[in-house]
Amino acid sequence: MSKQVDSLNKKIPVVTTRAKATIGSILTVIIAVYIVSAIFTEAYPNEIIKGMPIVIDFIVKDLFPPNLGYADTVLTSLIETWNMAFLSTTLSAFVALPISFFAAANINKNKVFYKAFRFFLNILRTIPELILAVILVAVVGIGALAGVLALFIFSVGILAKLISETIEAIDPNPLEAIRATGGNIVQVIWYGVLPQIMPHFTSYSLYVLEINVRASVVLGFVGAGGIGLILKKQLAMFNFDNVSTIVIMTFIAVTIIDFISNRVRERLM
């Protein structure tokens, strides 16, 4: 019996006093930051609860029933939104793949170039797509092109970062075997790297597509095309029945895209 108890005690991880103190300190900091943030933003829980009846009243009286006669216009904008997301994701995938090899330490042995590419990708990811869209609208004008370019730039940073980290985590044995037989860098990548990363590459691309579909909805508010553009107009004109139609159809479209993308990614992984 004592042996069983001993073996059970070995299986159960023991939380040390130091770990408990660390967890307690982290929770204390989180609570303190939450309180300070609530004070500065005046986002008190009781105020939020007080405002809920107003929100519910707005939804019931103003948003419903939706104007189904506006569905054709919404569908056209949703197609444009999908085209923006798909085009930007496809282009960024083709650009990010070669860049990721230069940002992988096990492929790019030159530390200077490696760090330079890593720094470049960090810059691309640091600038939000909404800020990029504002700048590009000023450069190329209002429309879907600004949205596509903004999503493309941001997506390159995300995809190249994810793929480069995947490359660094691959099995090095095939690479060493190809190098040992006199294979050059192109052969190492083609026969040793690509077969190992392609499922991840496809999965990450689909994940970025999901992000871009959602982001393209918001970009319309700054004039970068898509469903957000007509949503902004209808909100400004207080046509809340049309707004309701836009929200419902956008929710359905994004849900369908996410469902299909998740299913495909599950099969790949």
UniProtKB/TrEMBL annotation:
Signal peptide: none annotated. It holds the Pfam family BPD_transp_1. The chain crosses the membrane at residues 21-40, 85-108, 129-154, 211-231, 243-261. Keywords: Cell membrane, Membrane, Transmembrane, Transmembrane helix, Transport. GO terms for molecular function: ABC-type phosphonate transporter activity. GO terms for cellular component: plasma membrane. It is found in: Cell membrane. Its main location: membrane. It comes from the Bacteria. It is a multi-pass membrane protein. Residues 78-261 form the ABC transmembrane type-1 domain. PANTHER family: ABC TRANSPORT SYSTEM PERMEASE PROTEIN P69 (PTHR30043:SF1), PHOSPHONATES TRANSPORT SYSTEM PERMEASE PROTEIN (PTHR30043). This is Phosphonate ABC transporter, permease protein PhnE. It comes from Bacillus timonensis.
